[in-house]
UniProtKB/TrEMBL annotation:
Bias (Acidic residues) ranges: 621-633
Residue stretches of each ARM repeat: 221-263, 440-482
PROSITE patterns given in the database record: ARM_REPEAT, DH_2
Cellular component GO terms held in the UniProt record: cytoplasm; cytosol
GO BP terms: regulation of sorocarp development
Secretion signal, residue range per the UniProt entry: none
Gene: gxcC
Gene3D superfamilies attached to this UniProt entry: Dbl homology (DH) domain (1.20.900.10), Leucine-rich Repeat Variant (1.25.10.10), Pleckstrin-homology domain (PH domain)/Phosphotyrosine-binding domain (PTB) (2.30.29.30)
Basic and acidic residues: bias regions: 634-645, 846-866
Species of origin: Dictyostelium discoideum
Protein name, UniProt field: DH domain-containing protein
Stretch list, region Disordered: 618-645, 669-690, 846-876
Residues covered by the DH domain: 881-1074
Length: 1215
């Protein structure tokens, strides 16, 4: 196919060829051949015009293949050789233009240029042209140089769009050429400079689309010049530069080069004062940069120049000056920044939280961009909230409010990440958990447990496990059916969900109502299932649940009497190889062994009916004065209390009636609402059916109209076609008649046969066309029939489904109605029973009052029985006083357990959780030093308090008809003494460690201050709480002594109380002795560590105890005192003489020691001022500063000699 010239160009070419006809060496060839023959003409202007016409001919895309076949690509490349630019630069200009046109039209042409080594030629040409433009020769037009460079760069841009060419073009030498063009400067012609830089940038960007070329681009130094071009005044250059950097940031080496060239600062500077498109590109590049640790470290180290400009993109509040696209992209950058775990702490301190909360709070979820923003925001918060400082400030900064908002959004992905963030926010600080609960977070997380998304359920469960550590959240979780959800999680086949369910149940079982309800609902089978599991972690959680459940007496009754597999399962775990399981199972069995009541029926009513006698015990106050009341006042007060109980019971009945009436009213309203809702739904359904039927009929009418229109159009088209065919046939016949006149007879016959064959062929084709048209019409009718059948079937299925749902709804309503009626019947029965009880109690009260009045009359009438009456009154007063003391004991124990629980839940547990974090406040060892066995003591006394309270409530519920016996419960305190002993022995060290830690550990001190400000602590400080277990044993002794004084010696509880008192006193004595021994041993170890030198090997022995120390001068028997700064240590069997260490404060250097024996004596030494002498195997003299000090030392030493330990006496006898 020959090369075609358009009309205007062809006229110019023909005129040109006519003008230069004398110079043509090819006279008969094509136009292209003639033009090619003129390229070597001696007349330069002719050659320039000839190549120009050839170049412009390729401006038309129609010649893309013809030019290649005619060899023009090779021809143009020959004239683009760098050697031509000196002699024939205009031809170079037109040749590059021709190549540019050809490369732009066809990938085959691009490939052809590459195959002919044209890429190397073009880059060599660019290199020489760049040299030439800086200092152009006098006989060369600068416009030709500029045009050649511009067209060559365009050619490079086009060539780089082909993958195979890009692979070849990305050499370091080529990038060096492009880098020189990127750095080109021409202050005299700024437009020229910008033009060259822009095209060089586009060429570089296209070549770097091939990943392997990016490395050579960096080696050639292009990154630095591209960064400079970001400051260009031309927006298109800025845009191309940003795109270039964005593409370059996918490799580590390029990111390093950008950082080295201050590229992060440059990109950050593009975030303000620019068009949104440029800002968005800058953020994308920064996002790519922030995928490696080095960039994150750099950004954190240069917050002012990098981080703060990024933060500046955030709006002050949602919708204020920042588009959703920008916000989404800046969150991508921040998400990458917080991905480096070791640097997240520094990022958290840079102020990002406040920016994030302000930008996303209140954002609606109306599109995918909003979803992306909220997901990223919650992911960032989830990462940052793991930092303790962020958790502490989460409430004040509004993070909690934002997360609670997110968790209510309809997007599962947003809710999943928000739940994860809530779980990460709640492991340590109780005020955070309390705030989440106050904002409804517990109920929201419970609702999430019902979702189908397992990951969402997992994160919600994690959050609930932490939230349940707060007392108020425990109650909310229980009220939100937390027990049922935890059981459902435990029964899940997913191991993670099963484990979270057990942990949630462990925390829930700390709540009294929850643990009782769990046992009543048959939960013990789940506990047995956990205990017999093959998974040690599930076994451990099962033992913890059993331990907590056994705190309640009624649960111990159920667990011992109705769960035959429970105790054997726990006993089997006592032999476990896992120490935690073994220890926890032993604690569970000890809890289960604690006594419980024979019946707990009626104790729930006592909970509300019991009057609160006092808020704090007289044994917990400094004022121990007792007020004496006469008999009449006591009787009056008792009557008032009983009247208050009766009125409270009647009020309770009235309240129950009111509740039942409200319940009946609520049921009726619900049924009415459901009936109205059902009628409304049926009405809406009928309307939908009618609308659907109308729509169907309209569609059918429209379809019918469309088919009729198509048929009419087809008929019209067929009519036109036939008319056209008739016209053509007539024209052919006329032409044929004319032609036949000129043909011979033989030709005429031949052509008639051919015409006949052609006519038959045309008829056959027409028949086939009609047949195909008919088949197509039948196919469409068949498809339409099938579509209508499907619509009918779908409508039938829909009707069936609606009928099924209606039946199910009716069945559910019938079931609910039956349940509600049954509930109302039960309520009526309970009210009747309660009214009957009140009536019976009223009758009994009237009888009792009558009886008391008769007794009083009898007392007045019978003077002889006055002493007996007085005795009876005294016994009654004594019984009343005993009742008061018992209630006092119960209140003391309740308050004590409350204090223990506060210590464990507000201080110990959060600190223990923090000790496992990245930045623990205290080490586990330091926590143990401060709190010792407080958690075990809390467990013991919770059971003790439950047993004591249940016994007293049982007695009060039975109207005090039997003797109250609590001595046997106090005797069980002996089982707690091991933990009390450890705690009391460690108390002094505990307080010392606590105070030292508060002084040296500022975060710990801040944590203590924050927790102590919790309203639930009621201004109680931890240091005051820590002493309560130490005070409790003496308090028990005072309580029991007071109770014994008001208990008759023939009372069934007198002997158990006396035995319990003796036992507690004995144990207290042993603990005090052990405490003294422990303090003595600690003092000996401390002295041994402080004294340096040749201390006797047997210095630390069990029988040796430290007595005192002082600055006493010592020397030989002659009274010579040479040592300065003497310090003498006295023990129960020896004296050790030391001096202060010259370099180490509070430490000493050993000098001498004097071992006591049965022959050792002490005497005054008159020759020495305030002196005395110790005579043993060796004699030693001592001098005190005052006579009083000498007397004190001599008396103390003499006492030690008198009470010399047996071990020292034995040692003396051996010697």
């Amino acid at each position: 196919m020959p090369i075609q010239f358009d009309a205007g160009l062809e006229q110019q070419v023909n005129q040109f060829l006519g003008d230069v006809d004398d110079f043509l060496t090819v006279k008969t060839g094509t136009t292209v051949d003639k033009l090619k023959s003129l390229l070597n003409c001696e007349e330069k202007s002719i050659s320039y015009n000839a190549i120009a016409f050839l170049a412009f001919a390729n401006q038309a895309a129609v010649n893309k293949d013809a030019s290649r076949e005619a060899g023009l690509i090779k021809l143009f490349l020959e004239f683009c050789h760098p050697s031509k630019i000196i002699t024939v630069l205009p031809m170079v200009k037109h040749a590059s233009m021709g190549l540019m046109f050809l490369a732009n039209h066809s990938d085959e042409n691009k490939k052809e240029i590459g195959d002919l080594k044209g890429i190397d030629t073009i880059f060599e040409l660019l290199r020489d042209l760049l040299v030439m433009i800086k200092s152009p020769p006098e006989d060369v037009k600068k416009e030709d140089i500029v045009s050649s460079i511009s067209q060559s760069l365009n050619l490079v841009i086009f060539l780089a769009s082909l993958q195979s060419n890009r692979e070849v073009m990305g050499t370091v030498q080529n990038f060096l050429v492009l880098n020189s063009l990127l750095a080109y400067e021409n202050p005299q012609s700024l437009d020229l400079q910008l033009q060259i830089q822009e095209k060089a940038l586009s060429a570089t960007n296209n070549i770097c689309m091939h990943k392997e070329n990016k490395e050579n681009c960096r080696v050639a130094g292009c990154i630095e010049n591209v960064l400079k071009l970001l400051k260009s005044t031309k927006p298109s250059i800025q845009d191309s530069s940003l795109r270039m950097l964005y593409n370059m940031t996918i490799t580590d080496a390029n990111r390093e080069a950008i950082r080295r060239c201050k590229g992060l600062e440059t990109l950050a500077s593009m975030l303000s004062g620019q068009a949104e498109a440029l800002t968005l590109l800058s953020l994308k590049a920064l996002s790519n940069m922030a995928v490696d640790r080095q960039t994150i470290e750099y950004a954190v180290a240069n917050q002012e120049s990098v981080l703060q400009p990024i933060y500046g993109v955030f709006p002050s509040s949602y919708g204020q000056g920042c588009s959703d696209a920008l916000l989404d992209q800046v969150l991508t950058v921040i998400q990458n920044l917080v991905s480096e775990e070791n640097l997240i702490d520094t990022v958290a301190k840079s102020g990002i939280i406040a920016k994030l909360v302000g930008a996303t709070k209140g954002m609606p979820l109306t599109n995918t961009t909003h979803q992306s923003i909220l997901v990223k925001a919650s992911c960032i918060i989830s990462a940052l909230i793991t930092i303790e400082e962020v958790q502490q400030a989460a409430v004040e900064q509004g993070v909690i409010t934002l997360l609670v908002e997110m968790i209510q959004l309809p997007s599962a992905e947003v809710r999943r990440e928000a739940a994860r963030a809530l779980a990460n926010a709640t492991p340590y600080y109780d005020d955070v958990r309390a705030e989440i609960g106050a904002q409804g977070g517990v109920k929201l997380c419970v609702d999430l447990l019902l979702q189908a998304d397992k990951e969402l359920v997992k994160q919600a469960a994690r959050a609930l496990v932490n939230l349940a550590r707060n007392t108020h959240n425990e109650e909310k979780l229980y009220e939100s059916k937390g027990l049922e959800h935890s059981i459902r999680l435990i029964n899940s086949p997913e191991k993670d969900l099963k484990m979270l369910g057990t942990k949630l149940l462990v925390n829930l079982s700390l709540n009294e109502q929850a643990r009782i309800a769990f046992c009543q609902k048959g939960g013990l089978s789940i506990v047995v299932q956990l205990l017999t599991s093959s998974d040690p972690e599930l076994q451990l959680q099962g033992t913890k649940i059993a331990t907590n459940l056994a705190i309640s007496g009624r649960n111990r009754k159920v667990m011992n009497e109705q769960a035959p597999d429970l105790i054997p399962a726990l006993k089997a775990l006592v032999n476990s190889s896992v120490s935690d399981i073994k220890l926890q199972s032993e604690v569970s069995l000890n809890n289960l062994a604690f006594p419980y009541e024979a019946s707990y029926e009626g104790l729930d009513q006592m909970e509300d009916a019991m009057p609160i006698f006092m808020q704090s015990s007289q044994y917990e106050r400094d004022d121990d004065d007792e007020d004496d009341e006469d008999e009449a006042e006591k009787d009056e007060r008792r009557r008032q209390e009983e009247e208050e109980l009766r009125l409270a019971a009647e009020k309770e009945v009235e309240e129950r009636k009111r509740i039942m009436q409200e319940e009946v009213k609520r049921i009726e309203e619900r049924r009415k609402a459901e009936h109205e809702k059902r009628l409304q739904e049926e009405q809406e359904l009928r309307q939908k059916k009618e609308e659907a039927e109308k729509l169907r009929l309209a569609q059918e009418a429209m379809e019918k109209l469309r088919l009729e229109q198509e048929a009419a159009a087809a008929a019209e088209a067929e009519k036109i076609r036939l008319a056209e065919e008739q016209r053509i046939i007539k024209e052919k016949e006329v032409a044929e008649q004319e032609r036949i006149k000129q043909l011979t007879e033989q030709q005429k016959q031949k052509e008639e046969e051919e015409a006949k064959i052609a006519l038959e062929k045309a008829k056959k084709e027409e028949a086939e066309r009609l047949e195909k048209a008919e088949a197509l019409r039948l196919q469409k009718e068949q498809e339409e029939r099938i579509r209508k059948e499907k619509e009918i079937e779908a409508e039938r299925l829909r009707v069936q489904e609606e009928e099924r749902l209606a039946k199910e709804r009716q069945a559910e309503e019938d079931r609910m109605r039956a349940v509600e009626e049954e509930k109302l019947k039960l309520m009526e029965a309970e009210i009747k029973q309660r009214e009957e009880d009140i009536r019976r109690q009223k009758i009994e009260e009237e009888e009792r009052r009558k009886r008391e009045e008769q007794e009083k009359k009898l007392k007045d009438q019978q003077d002889k029985a006055s002493q007996e009456s007085a005795r009876l009154a005294q016994e009654a007063a004594r019984a009343q006083k005993r009742t008061h003391i018992v209630q006092e004991i119960m209140q003391v124990e309740v308050n004590y357990v409350k204090n223990l629980t506060l210590m464990v839940r507000k201080f110990l547990h959060p600190l223990a959780q923090l000790s496992t974090s990245k930045r623990p406040l205290l080490t586990p060892d330091r926590i143990t030093q401060i709190f010792s066995t407080i958690e075990n003591i809390q467990n013991h006394n919770s059971i003790f308090s439950d047993g004591l309270t249940s016994r007293i409530k049982r007695w009060l519920a039975d109207n005090k008809k039997d003797h109250l016996i609590i001595g046997d419960i106090f005797q069980k305190i002996g089982g707690f003494m091991q933990d009390y002993s450890k705690y009391i022995n460690n108390y002094n060290q505990s307080i010392k460690t606590y105070n030292e830690t508060k002084k040296t550990n500022l975060p710990f001190a801040q944590f203590i201050k924050k927790v102590e400000s919790d309203p639930e602590l009621n201004d109680r400080e931890l240091e005051n709480l820590l002493i309560t277990p130490v005070q409790q044993l003496p308090r028990y002794i005072m309580l029991i002594q007071d109770l014994i004084r008001n208990t008759h010696d023939d009372h069934p509880d007198y002997k158990p109380l006396t035995e319990a008192l003796d036992k507690i006193k004995h144990i207290t004595t042993i603990i005090n002795e052990k405490k003294r021994d422990a303090e003595d041993a600690f003092a000996m170890l401390q002295i041994h560590q402080q004294v340096h030198g040749k201390v006797p090997n047997n210095f630390v022995t069990p029988h040796r105890k430290f007595i005192r120390e002082g600055a006493v001068h010592f020397g030989s028997s002659s009274g010579s005192f040479k040592d300065k700064d003497p310090i003498v240590f006295l023990f129960n069997d020896m004296v050790m003489m030391t001096i202060k260490h010259p370099n180490k404060p509070n430490e000493y250097k050993y000098r001498y020691s004097c071992q006591f024996s049965t022959t050792t004596t002490i005497e005054e030494l008159p020759s020495v001022n305030n002196g005395f002498i110790i005579k043993s195997n060796q004699w030693w003299s001592f001098s005190c500063s005052t006579p009083q000090e000498k007397t004190s030392w001599m008396e103390t030493i003499q006492k030690s000699l008198t009470n010399l330990p047996k071990e020292s006496k034995v040692l003396t006898s051996k010697k």
